[in-house]
Amino acid sequence: MTKLSWSKNWLGSRRLTLLLAVVLFVVGLVALKADPREMQPSEGGLKLAGKFLQAAVQPALDYQADDLPASAPSFWSKVGRSLALTLRYAIVAMSLALVGGIVFGVLGSRAWWPAVAQGSRASGLLFFFLKCLRLVVRGVATLARSVHELLWALLFLTAVGTSPLAAVLAIALPYGGTLAKVFSELLDEEDASAAGVLWAGGASSLAAFFTGVGVRAFPDLVSYTLYRLECAVRSSAILGFLGIPTIGYHIATAYEDGHLREIWTYLYVLLAAVMVVDWWGALVRKRLSRSKPAREAGSRHDTAEELHRKRPKSWALRLSLVAAMAAVMLGWMTEKQWQSELPKERRQANLERFMMEIVPYPVRQENDWGELWPWLGERLWTKGAIGLHRTFHIGTIAILIAGAAALMVVPFAARSLAGRDPLGLPGGREMVSGFRAGVGWLLRIAALLMRSIPEYILAFLLLQVFGPTVWPLIFALALHNGGILVRLGAEVVDNRTIRAAELLVVQGGTRRATFLGVLLPDSFSRFVLLIFYRWETCIREATVLGMLGVLSLGSLIDEANTRLYYDDLFLYVLMGAALVFAGDIVSDLVRRRLRGPMVRSSAFRSG
Amino acid sequence: MNTVLQLADVEVSFGGIHALRGVSLTVEKGEQLCVIGPSGSGKSTLLGLMNGRLLAHTGSVHVFGQDVAALTARKLRGVRSELAWVPQNLGLVPNLRVLQNVLCGRAGRVGFFGLLRRMALTSMNEAEEVRALLERLGIPEKLYERTDTLSGGQQQRVAIARALYQKPAAILADEPVASVDPGRARSLLQLLTTLAKEEGITLMMSLHHVELAREFFPRLVGLQAGKVVFDQPASETSEEELRELYAVGEE
Questions:
Q1: Burial readout B139-168 (b: 16 or more C-beta within 10 A, e: otherwise)
Q2: A385-413 helix and A435-452 helix, angle to the nearest 10 degrees
Q3: Most Cβ neighbours (<10 Å): which of A202, A220, A237, B221?
Q4: Number of CB pairs < 8 Å for A and B?
Q5: Contacts of A194 in chain B (CB under 8 A)
Q6: Contact A201 B105 (CB under 8 A)
Q7: Helix crossing, A247-256 with A75-107: angle to 10°?
């Protein structure tokens, strides 16, 4: 056997994959010294949880405090303003990220390369140059996204002070990187046969690429962009925890004031916003992938003009386009001042000071870069190493729990199994009619809720209940990613017609037997693929969750920030970036090995 | 200038495997010929040489009297814009309207921005021209439909409309009827050969089905393991020759 097929077998092997997962899980628990007994919430925590859940059913409709000055704006205008701000930053950031994503996405793909007959020296040189360009562009994109938006924000805030521009750039940079990466993949994977025909008919490479590949990939590009917009709304809300007055800011302050019911108001508003974007994305996706038939069918005797009048057209898509453009314009125009309110000299001075202070302290003192190594060693081998491995394990354990839970939930949540008729085959009468479908529906709603709440807010709330252990972070990551994996896993089951599964049902097999016996083994490598995708983002998220006060890279960053040790801050941010960068590369390698026919889904991709 | 295409002693190999060896072939203007042979005999490679998608390793390929290997990129594009290609998978953009897919046929003649303008803001004259073309192919009412809503047979007609809209000197078609039933394949070939004759377009095709090849093409070229086994009028091709041509696959 060749080496490739060995590793392919190894990765495809269910037994070894499961073994690896168990080993990683146990090693992680030991390394984190995570005691399952710590999962028990404290008495105060339990009480708080009770109160908090009670508040969930009666979100605040007005201020909870009654000693407010008469000049205070009404509660709903405050909520509305924070929502508007959250959406505005998300939209403006996405508009920037989209431009960067398209430019870097095209440059980072192979699809636009001129189809020159290879072999000559000139074309060899050209391709060498193009390959280098592609590598550099992809590297830059990966680098931009390996630093979490919250950390970008932290860097910008410390460098130039609080400003809307800093918030927008903090989201736009990593999102631009992610868009670029996914756009390149989509363009490279796109069927290039139409481009080949155009090119063979004398079209320039540019024209062939644009119409043959670009236009063809357009629905997927739009669909992914809308999924990222949904994520951007969440990210924008989270930036509030750094003092930017988006929804997260109001959640944090309401918590500090003990106004639990107000927290729920903000949470519900955020959830509603995220779900509206989700729903809009689904609508656009549907219309782009399958056009609605025209109201009036054209006839053989019509002229071109009559056919043009009767052509099928989608109002949903037209309105969406207008709405998207209006939203971007409004987003850019309604902000009165993008820059910080500080005068220009102050900002300049701040930036200069920041640039000076990220230079390691001993180097600054002695003006000798030889001092760097002892300083670096001291941090890397003590705190840094601990923070790094804890971050890695938190992310890994979380994704393993999420993956395991999702696999257990998928057979009950997938539409094709949850109804009365498994896989669309007549299932006969049920004891309680609609019970199974109802459970499936509830599970899907729960998954939707879980993935709509940002991990950071989940972790923040869970920490108050469970106290400062690693469990709240793990649970928060596991819940959010579990929600995503349930949806993606259900899509995998629903979108495939497997004769063997149908056969099993026809021969009297139960749903469970069908799932365990056919569907799961059949789609196993796909599930593993999904888990790897989310693993990478889990690690990325884990680098910031520690900022809530649990020892890991995030807490080191937060500590350095409060002490104003910008050199340490910068170092730990870089370490986090290195971890995410490495995870990205591993995930890419694994995916290349596991790649089979892909399921086209936006959230399926990293991000 | 009556010779459209001339291959002289051409060899092509991919990674040490000979796809074509010592192939010589001359195609005159207005001819209709069909390349037949078992899978892997080099049919696609032969067609690929003709519009310069592939280059010969030894020997020469002349299209319209010009040596393909010696052409500049611009001249090569000029040559290609005279040659339309219909691949087996048709190479249509599924999420574009039929009209826009057909307009793509003239991409080599109108340039990138010309193509963009035509696709985004199609004038009524251009639309009418495409509609008339689709009418000859029997699907005028599909002008503004999204291409992926059409049936397989209708999509083949769109691909042929695109090729005709290019106003080429020759059409190269690689197994264009491989995935439809015999009835549809027959009517499509009927349509294509008739239209090509009417327009004076040279037609070169590769086919799996020997029966169809004999029925519609006056000239047959038999390929086996990269070599031309026979090149003769269809009427002179015997059952014996055909059986031998395909015998290699059964070993």
A1: bbbbbbbbbebbeebbbbbbbbbbbbbbeb
A2: 150
A3: A237
A4: 132
A5: 91-93, 104
A6: yes
A7: 140
Find out whether B26 and B3 touch, Cβ atoms under 8 Å: yes
Contact A195, A604 (CB under 8 A): no
Residues B165-180: pLDDT tens digits?
999 999 999 988 877 7
Provide the shortest C-alpha distance from residue B238 to chain A (in Å): 35
Which two tokens mark B93?
């953009």
Asked if B127 lies within 8 A of A305 by C-beta distance, the reply is yes
DSSP reduced 3-state for A301: coil
Nearest CB among B82, B91, B128 relative to A304 is that of: B128
Nearest CA in chain B to A220: B95
Q: What is the DSSP letter of B25?
A: E
- How many beta carbons lie within 10 A of that of residue A11, not counting itself? 18
Which H, E and C letters describe A31-44, residue by residue? Answer: HHCCCHHHHCCCHH
What is the 8-class DSSP label of residue A422? G
Cβ count near B231 (within 10 Å): 16
- Whole-number pLDDT of residue A113: 85
pLDDT confidence tier of residue A375, bands split at 50, 70 and 90? confident
- Rounded Cα–Cα distance for residues A153 and B129 (Å): 56
User: Roughly what angle, to the nearest 10 degrees, separates helices A566-594 and A553-562?
Assistant: 160
- pLDDT tens track for A165-204: 899 999 999 999 999 999 998 998 888 889 989 988 888 8
What is the value of pTM for the model shown?
Answer: 0.88
- β B3-14/B32-36 pair status: unpaired
